[in-house]
Amino acid sequence: MIKQPASAASRGHRMASKGALGSQAALLLAVQWLFGVASALSGTFVPVYLWKASQSYMLIGWFALGQYALGGITFYIAGKWVKEHNKMNSLRLGIVLSGVFYFTVLMLGKQAQYYGIPLGMLSGMALGFYWLAYNVVYFEITEPDNRDRFNGLAGLLGSTAGMIAPWISGLLITTLRGDRGYQLIFTLSLVVFGIAFILSFWLAKRKHVAGPYEWTYGFRQLAERGNPWRKMFAAIVAQGVREGVFMFLVGLIVYIATKDESKLGNYTLITSLVALISFWFVGKKLNPRNRNRAMLAGTIMLGLVILPLFWKVSYSTLLMFGIGTALFLPLYIIPITSRVFDLIGQSEASVKMREELIVLREAGLIAGRLIGLSGYLILLPLNHSPSAIVWLMFGVGIAPIAGWWFLRSFLKAEEPAGSRP
């Protein structure tokens, strides 16, 4: 594995041979945790807020469409800025625009239901700027021997954010009643985004001159016969199919089943606690040698945990589904995330094109999310019964198995020869 060029990582944070994480990695995790807390405080309840105002499944779908589409466009266009200028400004702009999004929802109140697509586009733009810069910086400050550890810690911290913040939000919304609770949590999100913005200035300025941004580089990888990015891209698309529906639908279904924001908060508290433990354990035990079997087990179980919902869609079966998902998702997410960034860092040439390849990764996720969302937008106008929604969840929920299938050749290559079947 070729080491990343010195300009791509801060001098004071070179990785130890045994996978230690430097202070810049810790700082990036802190910024990400704050971003996650701010997003979880309000983001979990945005679909619920829109639903309560409109009683429309389609509005939630159109909001997600605007979010995914403009998020992908932002990734593609901002890639030039991130590569050729200071990428930290993109990260900070993403934080600021996230704050603007929640401020706009706060100001619009119930009128937000009439601006589903524009609000989704604003949210997508914010997420595009933030995640593009975050992924580039993450790549620069990690290496193959500590990438699973970083992803495990990121998942663990994300779980703490998803555990505490929505629980507090649900409690506040239920206690204050009406719109006052929503106004308070949107305001709290703005404050936490502000703290994340300030903390980001302690991240080292990361500017390099690896050449101009190549707009068509990713497309050329996919057009080249035998290029490993063809299989990797297909695996990423499969990941996106599941995310395209589950990112917004699960919380909404929990609320519709219970009509109680506090129960949605309790749901996220319980499932995120399980995810916290699972991410910690998997991040500690996972390594390139056992990624293949771990990912296969994770993908199978992510499909099986949906089965209780065929019996009945209730809080208890949703909780069974949520706990199962939290338990097995790290087995899937950590290997695919680590392996795609290992592929980006496989040679000096690909390291120099990391921005273009990260944009290609996001293009795969967006394509998959739009495929999953298209199924939602086509099915729900025809039939939005609980059984139809569960079949939709099952259909997109088994997509990760295809992701493992496309990725298995990469994962098997990392196993010791004696352990391969």
Keywords:
single chain, 421 residues, mainly alpha, Growth Hormone, Chain: A, disordered N terminus
Question: How many domain regions?
Answer: 1
Alpha-beta content class? mainly alpha
Major β-sheet profile: none
Overall mean pLDDT: 87
| Radius of gyration over C-alpha positions, nearest whole angstrom | 21 Å
Number of helices in the DSSP assignment: 17
User: How much helicity do the residues have?
Assistant: over 70%
The CATH architecture name reads Up-down Bundle
Per CATH, the superfamily is: MFS general substrate transporter like domains
CATH class: Mainly Alpha
pLDDT < 50 stretches: 1-18
Annotated CATH topology: Growth Hormone, Chain: A
Q: What is the CA–CA distance across the termini?
A: 25 Å
Number of β-strand runs? 0
Shape: globular
Strand content: under 5%
Protein name: MFS transporter
Subcellular location: Cell membrane
InterPro entries: MFS, MFS_trans_sf, Sugar_transport-like
Keywords: Membrane, Transmembrane, Transmembrane helix
